[in-house]
Amino acid sequence: MGFSKILLSTSLCFTLFSGFSLSEAKAETSKDPIAIEPFACTEVGTYTTSYKSKTTSTKTEFTHYATNNSSVTDSVTRSVQISYAATVSIGGEASFKVLQTGAKITANVGYGYNSTKTLSTTWSIPKGKWKLTAGSKWVKATGTRYKVVAPCNLTNGTTTTANYTYATWSEKVKQ
């Protein structure tokens, strides 16, 4: 009878101890460096970009002088070639999106576009001489692109800039 009690208590103790993870116990007590090494950063070898600042500008791409000698309002319609772009100096689309989000101004074309589009613009021309202009509005967003190295440290900071259009504009000014 005594032997069965010892066997029962031994199996009960084994059941209690087997509930603990052997790998957890090994990690705390073993000298094996693989068992206690922290998990490696999954982003090592990739790049990340941080936003710094932005500047906005306008580009005049069309100028025309119109004269109306009549008291009846006239109109002038012109097809205007306007620049559109969404590019980044280094880092590709991921860096571009970070810089665009940081600037809080959305591009009016998709990433990688760099060309012109024809825009038809009509101005109403009252009596007098008028300067008609049209163009595009630009953002230059600046940031830093870093390489991620173990253990999740950022190195090799390189300045990167995104240049993109976000709107077109036109105006008439009395001369």
Please count the helical segments.
Answer: 4
Runs in which pLDDT lies below 50 for 5 or more consecutive residues are 6-38
Can you tell me the overall shape? Answer: rod-shaped
Beta-sheet strand percentage? over 45%
The radius of gyration computed from the alpha-carbon positions, rounded to a whole number of angstroms, is 34 Å
What is the tally of beta strands?
5
Mean pLDDT: 82
Summarize the main sheet.
Answer: 5 strands, antiparallel
* Structural class by helix and strand composition: alpha+beta
Distance between the termini: 116 Å
Keywords:
175 residues, alpha+beta, five-stranded antiparallel beta sheet, 4 helices, 5 strands, 23% helix, 53% strand
Topology:
Blueprint: H1 2-18, H2 22-29, H3 33-36, E1 47-68, E2 74-88, H4 92-103, E3 114-125, E4 128-149, E5 153-174
Antiparallel strand pairs: 1-4, 2-3, 2-5, 4-5
Structural notes for this entry:
It is a single chain. This protein is an alpha+beta fold and 175 residues long. 23% of the residues lie in helices and 53% in strands. It is built from four helices and five strands, in the order H-H-H-E-E-H-E-E-E. It has a five-stranded antiparallel β-sheet with strand order 1-4-5-2-3, covered by helices on one side. Strand 4 and strand 5 form a beta hairpin. The N and C termini lie far apart (116 Å).
